[in-house]
Amino acid sequence: MAGLLRFLLQVLCNLQTSSVCHQNIGNKTVPFSLSKNFSGARAEGVAQNMAGVGDEALAAGQTQKMNLFQAITSALDNSLAKDPTAVIFGEDVAFGGVFRCTVGLRDKYGKDRVFNTPLCEQGIVGFGIGIAVTGATAIAEIQFADYIYPAFDQIVNEAAKYRYRSGDLFNCGSLTIRSPWGCVGHGALYHSQSPEAFFAHCPGIKVVVPRSPFQAKGLLLSCIEDKNPCIFFEPKILYRAAVEQVPVEPYNIPLSQAEVIQEGSDVTLVAWGTQVHVIREVASMAQEKLGVSCEVIDLRTILPWDVDTVCKSVIKTGRLLISHEAPLTGGFASEISSTVQEECFLNLEAPISRVCGYDTPFPHIFEPFYIPDKWKCYDALRKMINY
């Protein structure tokens, strides 16, 4: 509580802060050179897959080639232009953020709408809740998903429950929390985590993870406009690796609707974020080497997730493989597996397979072994087919 009060006082007294937080953050402000993050097949696979990414048809109007962070900047720009109550705040957002997602927005919209905060994640989210309760649009940035845990109480016990505790008299549904997410190739313990499962156990919020620039803009705008608090996790390895044509004007992609990227008849592959590109490679390998037809599904929204699309696919294929970077035990793959087991038991031809990170903190020198790459996924798929 004392930390939150200090934070609020500092924000009220010093909204003009631009580089102060940046100078004092130390190790937390060191951005990654994403062009060199992942060597070998994984980075190549992402680039190849982006060439064929086909979300919904591109919205009518002008488009520009954007990478993922530029698409996010475009979404934030659209939101600030459309909604005069919208504000963006977080550590270093005034100078553009460590991944440059807010670059230029302070100059364009002013220090009262795009401003820095002290290093207090609990305070950032608590401040955002207060702004949202007044009816304004609050877009908070947590510099890395690994840093979101100090704000856990504010998210789980305040933001998610505010509407319920007041009998729908009050709400903070106009709060969106953005955060870079997932492994990046050399992030080690505190710059590699995927904490979506922690928040998937929390009714009252929505949790979203995009895989491409087109998705990122459309889903982020949907989160900002949604009537519920949303957490928007951004795969940081894709900030610069993923590039495609993105509409300049605002558009929306519906939340809680998975996308069937590729139809198939033998195995259903489910993932989100960066891992979608991995399972697309696995689908190609399975077709080429085994003659196996894979249906590839991007979940996109973790909470509430699209049970219907996944179950319909599994009823058709009889097999399910789920993959995510987070540790296996307690990961969201467990929830998907359990639900599918309950809904599709008589249709299953083999046990459901989960290909995930190991049950250990993210290791620096062993990151290539920790990541559930295409070879691990392919091996699990082959075992399912031979079951």
Query: What does the largest sheet look like?
Result: 7 strands, mixed
Instruction: Specify the structural class.
Output: alpha/beta
Number of domains: 2
Tell the overall outline. globular
How much strand? Answer: 15-25%
Number of helices: 16
Task: Report the CATH C-level class of the largest domain.
Answer: Alpha Beta
Supply the CATH superfamily name of the largest domain. Thiamin diphosphate (ThDP)-binding fold, Pyr/PP domains
Q: Which stretches of 5+ consecutive residues score pLDDT under 50?
A: 1-41, 51-57
- Round the Cα radius of gyration to an integer and report it: 20 Å
User: Could you name the CATH topology of the largest domain?
Assistant: Rossmann fold
- What order do the helices and strands follow? HHHEHEHEHEHHEHEHEHEEEHEEHEHEHH
Report the average pLDDT across residues. Answer: 88
End-to-end Cα distance, whole Å, is 55 Å
Tally the beta strands.
14
How would you write the strand order of the largest sheet? 3-2-4-5-7-6-12
Label the CATH architecture of the largest domain: 3-Layer(aba) Sandwich
